[in-house]
Amino acid sequence: MDALMHSILNGKNAMPPKGTCMDCSDDELKAAVEYLTSRAK
Ligand code: HEM
């Protein structure tokens, strides 16, 4: 989770920082990652 949050906040390769949502809060982005990872089973 910490590593994924680092990727999102700073960007990774072709992934833009914050997924381009510059007015999303860190908590909102973290909630999005928690949702995505909860579905990936
Ligand atoms: C809030 C919106 C978004 C969230 C929460 C999100 C989340 C993620 C996460 C968790 C990863 C995996 C990172 C890792 O492996 O460490 C990822 C990878 C990626 N995302 Fe997103 N993403 C978002 C928006 C976007 C958008 C808008 C784009 C393209 C314009 C994008 C392009 C990519 C790409 C290309 C990767 C693969 C990066 C790589 O490993 O080379 N993402 N994203």
TrEMBL record:
It comes from the Bacteria. It comes from Magnetofaba australis IT-1. Keywords: Electron transport, Heme, Iron, Metal-binding, Transport. It holds the Pfam family Cytochrome_CBB3. Residues 2-36 form the Cytochrome c domain. GO terms for molecular function: electron transfer activity; heme binding; iron ion binding. Transmembrane segments: none annotated. This is Cytochrome c domain-containing protein. The keyword Heme applies. InterPro entries: Cyt_c-like_dom, Cyt_c-like_dom_sf, Cyt_CIE.
